[in-house]
Amino acid sequence: MSKQTGRRRHLAGLTAWDRCAVMGVVNVTPDSFSDGGRFFDTTAAIKHGLDLVAEGADLVDVGGESTRPGATRVDEDEELRRVVPVVRGLASEGVTVSVDTMRASVAEQALAAGAALVNDVSGGLADPRMIPVVADAGAPFVVMHWRGLLEGGNVRGTYTDVVTEVVDELHARVEAVLDGGIAPDRIVVDPGLGFSKDAEHDLVLLAHLDRLLALGHPLLVAASRKRFLGRVLAGRPEATPPPARERDAATAAVSALAAHAGAWAVRVHQVRATADAVRVARAVEGAR
Ligand code: PMM
């Protein structure tokens, strides 16, 4: 494959950016917006999304349920209460919003409230209604590599060849999504860094983004603040990793690498440095 042929940066129904897009994260979870009542939560989350756009986010990913290892699921009504007003508020301000959910009902109501795409970390596996709902809406769909949840955490991944297995399993999910009626030009793939993967797996996947791009769909890379960056920054295995909030420079470094490799978008908590990183990658690409 030439350096350019694997790149798919256009998704039907969405703006086409001439570089890797920046997806800013708005987690509407109690640990993100800790004090105050729900009104405050919604208002703070909308403001946070607008701040991310002002810092250079091209789209904002709104989620109401933590998918971190060890997190327990929130109930459906609570997820709807957290997510839908924030999606509506941001969409009404002209922001391109993606909804990060494994529930079809949340996707459906978020799309009705103005969301432009659905980001499902289970790739449609967690809720059998997800694919039909997204297909009916004609919305773009992010299919992440996922091996399910165990009580309170991610199923531990065992791989003999992580790249081949992730590519094959994603390919199978893409086929299922196509069979379910989602158009090929509306599918994004994502290796699911940190989901049933340890630091080594994440790094090997990042070193082989060309193999993921060869699936022929736009690629989303979501490395932001993840454990593997903590491990890299700690250096020695016995050293304590820096906390999540001290991993933003490392995240921006991954953003530059992913953009250079041809990713469609990077999903990040802290936007400014990544917005710079993707612009530098674009400039270097333009000078080739
Ligand atoms: N990771 C998280 C949440 N949503 N969505 C996609 N598409 N890919 C990911 O890797 C992903 C995601 C968990 O990260 P957070 O809790 O730090 O937001």
From TrEMBL:
Repeat listed as a keyword: no
Pathway entry: Cofactor biosynthesis; tetrahydrofolate biosynthesis; 7,8-dihydrofolate from 2-amino-4-hydroxy-6-hydroxymethyl-7,8-dihydropteridine diphosphate and 4-aminobenzoate: step 1/2
Positions of the Pterin-binding domain: 20-279
Documented EC number(s): 2.5.1.15
InterPro entries per record: DHP_synth-like, DHP_synth_dom, Dihydropteroate_synth-like_sf, Pterin-binding_dom
Cofactor(s) demanded: Mg(2+)
Annotated catalysed reactions: (7,8-dihydropterin-6-yl)methyl diphosphate + 4-aminobenzoate = 7,8-dihydropteroate + diphosphate
Alphabetized UniProt keyword annotations: Folate biosynthesis, Magnesium, Metal-binding, Transferase
GO molecular function, one term: dihydropteroate synthase activity
Described purpose of this protein according to its UniProt entry: Catalyzes the condensation of para-aminobenzoate (pABA) with 6-hydroxymethyl-7,8-dihydropterin diphosphate (DHPt-PP) to form 7,8-dihydropteroate (H2Pte), the immediate precursor of folate derivatives.
Family membership: Belongs to the DHPS family.
Listed name of the protein: Dihydropteroate synthase
Species assigned in the record: Streptomyces tendae
